[in-house]
Amino acid sequence: MSLRLLLVAVAHARLAPIRQRAASLRGGADAAWDALRAHVAADIESTHLRDLLRDDARNAALTFACGDITLDCSRQRATVETLRLLAALGEARGVAAKRDAMLRGDLVNESEGRAALHTALRAPRGAAPVLVDGADVHAAIHDTLDRAYAFAGKVRAGGVGSTGKMLTNVVAIGIGGSCLGPECVYEALRSEPAAQAAAAGRSLRFISNVDPVDAARALEASDPETTLFVVVSKSFTTAETLLNAQVCRDWLVARLPGVNPAMAVAGHFCAVSSDVEKAADFGVEPDNVFGFGDYVGGRFSVHSPVGALPLALHFGPSIFRKFLEGARACDDHFAAAPLEENLPVLLGLFGAYNSAVLGFPCRAVLPYAQALSRFPAHVQQLDMESNGKSVASDGSALDGDAGEIIFGEPGTNGQHSFYQLMHQGRAVPAEFIGFCESQRPAHAKGRPLSCHDELMANFFAQPDALAMGDVDEAHPERACPGNRPSLSLLLPRLDAYHVGFLVALYEHRVAVQSFLFGNNAFDQWGVQLGKVLAGRVADALGDAAEAAALNSSTRGLVAAYRRHARASIEAVASGS
Questions:
Q1: Residue stretches of the chain with pLDDT short of 70
Q2: To which protein family does this belong (predicted)?
Q3: I want to staple 434 with a disulfide (CB 3.0 to 4.6 A). Which of 238, 459, 482, 499 is the partner?
Q4: Torsion-angle region of residue 432: left (phi > 0), alpha (psi -120 to 50) or beta?
Q5: What is the DSSP letter of 426?
Q6: Which pLDDT does position 3 carry in this prediction?
Q7: How confident is the model at residue 568, as a pLDDT?
Q8: pLDDT tens, 205-221?
C-alpha cells in the first residue's frame, strides 16, 4: 500500500466515530433543515424586513459582540426563533464536534489524509500539544517562525545583496493562497501608521499571474542590486510560480553581469517551500528556505511563512506578531463561545441559511475601507475553493448546492458599480465591514463631517436601504423593494491585530459552512483538473502533432493562436 493510501486509510479510521455519530444524526439534521424551511414558509416569506426592524428586542437579540467587535445580524430575514432553529441546525450537524476535531488535529481532510491545522500557526509558545504523526506541530512552527523573523531582522538591519547594496525591495512570487492572503494583508496595513512607519524606506511587490505583464510591472520598478525575491511554493513545483521565478532569475542575472550567476541568485533569492532540495537546485541557499507542514492548505496559509516571510521583511516581525495575536483571539473565541454567540459560527449559520434555505446563490463582501481592497478577492478564494463542492466528505452526493458566488468591492466605490442591481435587481445577501477609526483621518475645510464620517454614513445607510427599500407609486422606476438581507461587522480600527482577527473570522466561517453542508473544505480537486488539461494544451502549443488529441473546438482556437504567433514572428523578422 502506498503512503498516500495508508494516510487516507488512517484518516478514515480516526474519523470513524465522528462518521458514526454523523450517520446517527442524519435524520436529525434533515429534520433541522426541514424545521427551518417550515419556519420560513410560515413566518418569514410574508414578513418584510422593514417590519422586523420595528422590533427593538429582536434587533438587540440579533446583535453580538466579541470584545470590541460587533456583529449586527438584525437585517437578516430572521427572528429570534430563526436564530434558535439555526443553533439547533448547528447542533444537529455536529458543528461543535467537527470544530473540535479540526482544532485538535484530526485528519479532517479525508480525501488527502491530512489535518487542517492553520490554527496551530498562531498558537502561543507553551500551548497544549497538537500532534500530527505523533509529533507536536507547535515546536516546528515556532522554530520556523523564529528563523523567518531572524532572517527578516537581518535583512532589515542592513542585509546586503551580491553587490553590497542593502536589500530594501522585496518581490514575492506565488499564486493563489501563496499570494492573495499576503497581498491582502499588505494592502490592509501599508497605510496604517505603525505598519507604515515600520516599513519606511522599503517596498513590497507581488507577482502571481503567469501573464508576463505581471512580472514586467513588478520588475520595471525594481533595482536588481537592492531586490530580494521570495519564491512561495510549498512543493516547489507550482508551474506558474516556477516560471515567474525563472523569469526573475534571468532578469537578475542579466542585470548583474559582473556577478557570478550562482552568487547572484544565492544573494537575492529566498523561498517558502517544504522541498529544500528543489529550492536549492534552483539556487536558493538551504538556510534561506522556510517550510511548513502539509496540514496547512494554501488558502489558509497566510499566518505561515507564506505570509510571515514577505510581511516581516517589509513591516518587521513585531507587526506580524500582532497579526498572529489577532488571529489567535478569534481562534480562542471560536473554540469556546456557545454556538449562538460565536461570531464565526453565526456567519456560517446565516450564510447557509441565505443560500440553502432562502435560495440566494451569491454573497457580497463589502469592506468600507479602501485598505481592504484585496479582502474580497482573498475571501473569494478562501470560500469558493473550499466550499465549491458537490460531493460530501464521505463521497456521497450533497443534497443541494454548497458554497456561494462571492464578489465585492470597497465602499463607496461599489455603490457606484453593482449596488444598483442589489437595490432593484437581484437580491444579494451583503456583508458590510466597517471601522470606527480611519488609518488616515482627513477633514476638508468647511465641511461639517470628516471624510471618514462621510464614509461611515454610507456604511450605516446602505444596509437600511437594502432592508427597508422605498415605495414610489408615481415613479415605479425609482421604487426599491427592499427586504434584501445583510449583516454589519464593526471593528474599532484596521490595524495588524484586527486584520488578523478578521482573516481568521472568515477562515472559520468557511469551515462552519462546510460542517453544515457536509463537504470537505480543505481539498480542491477541481483546481487540479484544470492544471492537468493546461499541461496537455501546452504540449499542443509546442508540437502541432499533439493537437490531434484535443477536441475540435480547442484545436481550432489553438490553430488560430499559432497562426497569429507565426505571423507576428514573420513580421518582426521582416522589420514590418
A1: 1-28, 576
A2: Belongs to the GPI family.
A3: 459
A4: beta
A5: S
A6: 43
A7: 83
A8: 999 999 999 999 999 99
Residue 118's Cα: distance from chain center in Å? 12
Q: What is the pLDDT of residue 430?
A: 98
The β-bridge partners of 65 are: 70
Catalytic residue among 154, 165, 416, 443: 416
Tell me if residue 452 is catalytic. Answer: no
Query: What ranges in 269-406 are assigned the alpha helix state H?
Result: 276-282, 305-315, 317-336, 343-352, 375-387
Specify burial of residue 287 (Cβ count, 10 A radius: 0-12, 13-18, 19+).
exposed
DSSP assignments along 342-376, one per residue: -HHHHHHHHHHIIIIIS---EEEEEES-GGGTTHH
Pairing, β 486-491 against β 69-72: antiparallel
Is 385 a residue of the active site?
A: yes
Residue 550, SS3?
Answer: coil
Which of 154, 165, 443, 531 does the annotation list as catalytic?
531
Give every CB contact of residue 396 below 8 A, 6+ residues apart in sequence: none
* Whole-angstrom distance, CA of residue 438 vs CA of residue 456: 10
Is the pTM above the cut of 0.85?
Answer: yes
Which residue in this structure is represented by grid cell 495508508?
6
Polymer length of the chain: 576
Residue 570 annotated among the catalytic residues of the structure:
no
Cα(374)–Cα(367) distance, integer angstroms: 10
Q: What is the CA radius of gyration of the chain?
A: 25
**Which residue in the list 385, 409, 431, 507 is annotated as catalytic?**
385
Please give the pLDDT value at position 398: 92
- Quote the CA–CA distance of 336 and 201 in Å, as a whole number: 42
Residue corresponding to grid cell 493563489: 176
Write the CA distances from 350 to 152, 263, 342, integer angstroms.
41, 55, 12
CA distance 64 to 78: 15
